[in-house]
Amino acid sequence: MPDDRVRVVFLVLDGMPAPVVSDDVTPVLDAWCTASGTTPHTVAAVLPATTYPNHATFVTGVAPAEHGIVGNHVLCDDGRFRHARKIGLHVPTIFDRVTAAGLTSTLVVGDQELVGVMGGTGAGSHWPPDGRVPDGAGTDEHGYLHDDETLPVLLDAVASNVDLVVGQLNAPDTAGHVHGPTSDAARAVYLATDARLGAVRDAVEARGRDTVVMIVSDHAVEAVEVAAPIDLTPVLEGTGLTWFPEGSAALVYGEHPDLDGLLGGVDDLAGSTTAAPGVHVVWGEPGRWLCFDGIDAEPGMHGSPRTAVQLAAVVGTHPAVHDLDARIQRDGFDATSWAGEMARLLLP
Predict the structure, then answer these.
(1) Backbone φ and ψ of 139, nearest 5°
(2) Please, where are the H alpha helices in the chain?
(3) Which of 98, 125, 179, 211 is deepest in the core (most CB within 10 A)?
(4) Residue 71 sits in the same domain as residue 181
C-alpha cells in the first residue's frame, strides 16, 4: 500500500448509548478522542431506529426507501415477511466501490446476519464466513457471536494492509435488550466494550499515522415499562394494511384514506412517519413497545425516534481526522453520511 494512502476503520458499537460516553464508563474512547483532539458527537439514525436499516444505510449512504431494507423484517412482493439478510440491497455498497477502484476491504461483525444485510460478500473478505456462526463459537443471549470471538478477527484486520475495515461489536445491544439500558449489568458490558476498543486503539497506533477511525453506534435503547405490547392487529384487520413489529416502533405497509384516524384510535401510540412509499413507521409512548399479543417483553427496546441517536466519533493521528471531526459538527451529519466519507478518503 503506498505511503500516502489513508486507511479507514469504520467500527459500529451496536446499541451503545451515546450519553454513556464519559471518562467513567468509556474511558478508552474518551481518552482516544482527547488524544486525537476530537469530540464525541451525536447524529441522527434512520427510522425505524433498528439495527439492519441503519447498518444498510452505513454502507450505502442512502435511506431505507432507496436501499430497500426498511426494517429488520421486510414485506416482500409475495406478501411474506422475510429477514433483512435475505432481501439484498438495491444499490451498490462502499465495498463495491472500493473493489471497483482496485482497493481492498473486509467486513468483521458479531451479528452474523449483518453479512447479508450489509452486502458483506461484496467485500474482499468477510467474517463470519457466509454469515454463519462458526462451529463451537461462543454466542450471547440472542444467538449472536460473543465479542470475544469477534475481536481477534477484527484486530487482525486492523493490523493488516486492508484499505477499508468495517467492523461491529454486538454486546452493548444485547445487554440493553436483556438487562435494560441503564442497568448495572448493561453498564458492565459498556465498560467491557470500551476495554475491547482499547485493543483496537493499540492495533491502530502500532501502524503509525495512516488510519482514520470512525466509531459509531446504530441506535440507542430505551426502557420498556409496560410488559404488554401494543398490538396493531385488531385495528388493522380488514383495512388492507399489514404490519410488523420493530421494537418500540412498527412498520405498517399499505395505504389507507384515513390511516391517521385508524392509528389515532390505538391507545399509547405516539406518532408516525413515512419511511418509503407505502411503508409507515409508527411508535408508542415512552415505556411502550409494539408486538403481537402474547409475546414477552425484554427490559430494553429500540425503534422509536427517541432511540434514533447515534454516537459519532473520529479518532487517530492522520491529518484527515480533524477535518472530519469539524465537518460532523458543521455539516449536519446523519446515518447516510458515512459511506460518502469513506469514499471521499479512499477513492480517487
Answers:
(1) -130, 165
(2) 27-36, 51-60, 64-67, 94-100, 114-117, 147-159, 171-179, 184-205, 233-236, 259-264, 320-330, 338-346
(3) 98
(4) yes
Cα torsion angle, 79, 227, 142, 301, sign: positive
What does the alpha-carbon distance between residue 153 and residue 190 come to, in Å, rounded to a whole number? 20
Is 227 domain-assigned? no
User: Crossing angle, helix 184-205 and helix 147-159, to 10 degrees?
Assistant: 20
pLDDT tens-digit series, residues 9-27: 999 999 999 999 999 999 9
pTM flag (> 0.85)? yes
- Under DSSP, the state recorded for 42 is E
* Nearest in space to 170 (alpha carbons), one of 119, 93, 115: 115
Q: Quick check: 260 and 228 in contact, CB under 8 A? A: no
Q: What's the CA gap between 271 and 291, in Å, rounded?
A: 16
Which residue range(s) make up the domain with 251? 233-297
DSSP state of 336: G
Matching residue, cell 409508527 = 282
What pLDDT digit, counting tens, does each position of 125-144 carry? 999 999 999 999 999 999 99
Same domain flag for 165 and 244: no
